[in-house]
Specification:
The chain is an alpha+beta fold. It contains three helices and five strands; from the N terminus they run αααβββββ. It has two domains: about 80 residues, no CATH class; about 45 residues, SH3 type barrels, CATH 2.30.30. The protein has a five-stranded antiparallel β-sheet, with no helix packed on it. Strand 1 and strand 2 form a beta hairpin. The mean pLDDT is about 75.
Length: about 140
Amino acid sequence: MSSDLISAIGLRTAETAAAPTQRQTLGQQDFLTLLVTQLRNQDPLNPLENEAFVAQLAQFSTVSGISEMSATLGRIEALQATDRRAAAAAWIGRTVASSDGTAGRVQSVEIAGDGALSLLLEDGGRLAADAVASLS
């Protein structure tokens, strides 16, 4: 959490021996901490307006939904990569071409540690599967 944000909401930080690592964004836990701190430290004679509280809860719900959507998209991407690897064997013996003019008959398919596919061509060339523009 930035010191500007902490002082803006009226909090004081405790001095520590080791400097904390700086982050560029706030997460769900940071939001909950701020919300609970705000509720604990509000003036009992002038409580938080209902509209403001509901708006903050809606923001938290939005952040939570975005986190869940990001996790789901990650799972979809992993499934797509698995499907692409399973279909790679069907490329052997077929002719491929890329938009930069590289073309040739696929001799074998290589899967890198990160899951990236490379097509090894009969003429000794190599073509990334993502660069293929046509397949015949």
